[in-house]
Design a protein that fits this description.
There is one protein chain. By secondary structure, this protein is of the alpha+beta class. It has two domains: about 210 residues, Diaminopimelate Epimerase, Chain A, domain 1 (Roll), CATH 3.10.310.10; about 140 residues, Diaminopimelate Epimerase, Chain A, domain 1 (Roll), CATH 3.10.310. The longest helix is centred in the middle third of the chain and has 14 residues. The chain is globular. The chain binds the ligand N[C@@H](CCC[C@H](N)C(=O)O)C(=O)O. Its EC number is 5.1.1.7. Keywords: Amino-acid biosynthesis, Isomerase, Lysine biosynthesis. One of its GO terms (molecular function) is diaminopimelate epimerase activity. Pathway: Amino-acid biosynthesis; L-lysine biosynthesis via DAP pathway; DL-2,6-diaminopimelate from LL-2,6-diaminopimelate: step 1/1.
């Protein structure tokens, strides 16, 4: 059986619902887990206690011919955190069924340990599926991999929608109302399995982004100078519920070659810049055409990630405000493309992209 290999079984995960393309398979993490076992215990078991992590990680590779994912999702033993790992274009999350409580099942400190790519499961964040608030179907809360709590996560909410569909055994086209720190968000699962999300209206008022950069007469920060050590960048600031600083070029230049940037060096300087009192996510953008952009992101609380949904939305809003692009764009991220539309009629931003299961796991708490 595939699960006996001591690593996560691609063939078994693939049929669990969505790991069908070779691209998705390539996005699987390399073994981050300490214990692998087949569902029916007929397999290899390796246990390791990882450093000071304080709990053991178990990853359970599915044997679909014997067990369906739904029987894993039904697991309720106390003393364990059962989770499903998802990714949206390589932006990966540990999804936790928290529908029975308004308190997250783990603390920010435990989230940091779980997200660790060497001693934990490995993820950019932990997402909790919680009971609805003010009449919404569900509430989504997130911890970044550094334990901070952002208001919203675009790739995360697509994963959230697919996770809810799995939990509730919903098939086909379906939409949910989700309460988040950024207000009401409405993801809709499409017939092709992609998720289209009504991300709401962008926030442009400097004080609400928040940024201390000087605003224009509409109170927005568009193409402003931002000094980062010796270099002046032109930046536009947009909140999609969470703060984004978008740059298309250094002052006096026209465009960026985003592959040339050393994100690990410059990203933290933007994130912790004094002009951003709540820190910031930063998007570095290259314009290919008026409907095709390429970005790399340095995320607040997570560093360089393979994709950022709220970031891609902020990029299109910023590109329109700077007169660089139309309202409908394909945004290429390191993990793949997102389709973004900033609709004139309702001022809402719509994001469409994939969300995929990676594996199912349990962690003794
Ligand atoms: N990757 C996410 C954004 C997650 C939150 C972000 N790190 C923050 O602190 O604001 C996305 O896809 O939007």
């Amino acid at each position: 059986m595939a699960a006996a290999t001591g690593s996560i079984s691609l063939s078994s995960c693939a049929s669990s619902s969505s790991l069908s393309s070779s691209k998705s398979r390539r996005n699987l993490p390399t073994a981050q887990c300490c214990t692998f076992r087949g569902w029916n215990n007929s397999t290899v078991r390796k246990s390791v206690r990882g450093g000071d992590i304080g709990f053991r990680i178990s990853a359970i590779s599915m044997a679909p011919e014997k067990v369906s994912p739904s029987s894993f999702l039904d697991r309720k033993e106390s003393g364990f955190l059962h989770f499903v790992k998802y990714h949206g274009l390589g932006n990966d999350f540990i999804l936790v069924d928290n529908r029975d409580s308004t308190e997250p099942k783990i603390t920010p400190e435990q989230a940091v340990k779980l997200c660790d790519r060497n001693f934990g499961v490995g993820a950019d964040g932990v997402i909790f599926a919680m009971p609805g608030t003010n009449g919404t179907d569900y509430t989504m809360r997130i911890f970044n991999s550094d334990g901070s709590e952002p208001e919203m996560c675009g790739n995360g909410v697509r994963c959230f929608a697919r996770y809810i569909a799995e939990l509730e055994n919903i098939h086909g086209k379906h939409s949910f109302t989700v309460h988040t720190g950024a207000g009401l968000i409405v993801p809709e699962i499409q017939d092709d399995g992609k998720v289209k999300v009504d991300m709401g209206e962008p926030i442009l008022k400097a004080i609400d982004v928040p940024t201390k950069l000087p605003a224009n007469k509409e109170s927005a920060v568009v193409k402003s100078d931002l000094e980062v050590e010796e270099i002046t960048w032109n930046v536009t600031c947009v909140s999609m519920g969470n703060p984004h600083c978008v740059t298309f070029c250094r002052k006096g230049e026209q465009n960026l070659e985003v592959d040339q940037l050393n994100l690990a060096e410059i990203g933290p300087k933007f994130e912790h810049h004094q002009m951003f009192p709540a820190r910031t996510n930063t998007e570095f953008v290259q314009v290919f055409s008026r409907s095709h952009l390429k970005m790399r992101v340095w995320e607040r609380g997570a560093g360089a990630t393979l994709a950022c949904g709220t970031g891609a939305c902020a990029v299109v809003v910023a590109a329109v405000l700077e007169g660089r692009a139309e309202r409908s764009c394909t945004v290429d991220l390191p993990g793949g493309p997102l389709e973004i539309e900033w609709r004139e009629e309702d001022n809402h931003v719509y994001m469409t992209g994939p969300a995929e299961v990676v594996f199912y796991g349990s962690v003794p708490l």
